[in-house]
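Practice record 12: protein with PTJ.
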Amino acid sequence: MVDYKNNDDEIPRDHPRYQSLNFRHKIIEGMKDLVVAEAGLIAHGRGECFDYILGEKTSEVAYQAIKASVAALLIAKHPIISVNGNIAALVPHQISKLSNLMNIPLEINLFYRKEGRIEAITKILEESGALKILGKDDLKMVEINELSSNRRKVDLEGIFISDIVMVPLEDGDRTEALKKLGKKIITIDLNPISRTALNADITIVDNIIRTIPLMIKFYQELKNLKMEELEKIVNKFNNKDNISKTLDLIIDYIKKEKIKLLNKS
Ligand code: PTJ
């Protein structure tokens, strides 16, 4: 893991929250480099809060969603991974590796299109080894009517023709718009009751930092399966049930914390 080094604020390695602080600083540095939108800091904080009450680990339920996602991406004819600033700052190498291994293009699709951001994100992805990056050539962009935010601009070779789109760390209305266009949606969202989480076909309630390496692992496991076997995995998966079990996990976690507190002398 890359160390965050700032003359004044170096994080001591023995800090109990070293990892979390390290990722926080990646987001802060990303904002300084135009990779991350200002609002990306707030989004990260919201994610941290949900991660906390999920015990900061990948649940068994999330594993099932990750497995179903990889199977669905392997079945798809035109899968796409949508990338925003937070993803590029947090997991540039891992998302590039997943994209290259699975031969799925990354499409930069931003909510906040401040000048220079597309270039900054392209740079970080290229430096991380991504081979196929879409969403950066204005001549290939079209607008989808179902959406009024900046996210309406999509690549003709990417989201526009896709049958399945992975939209991690997403803001509300795009999932609904893409679903209206007949696309299947996979999301990675620590908030199990966000509009995106509730409307996606497969919702992975987990931290993207843990999820992407696990997707790479599942890809190695599933890549040689027959189409029928992959379809079986996807068909067995029930998103509503999966989210409901995640909510139970949060309730259980909070109850346990309450008992610990009451037993404290
Ligand atoms: O780079 P841009 O311009 O496309 O903007 C990106 C942000 C993230 C600012 C934009 O999409 C946004 O405002 O998103 P929201 O509406 O804050 O939603 C982000 C969701 O991602 C929230 O539900 C968070 O809980 C969740 N989240 C934040 N960090 C993580 C996360 N989920 C998984 N892993 C994380 N590390």
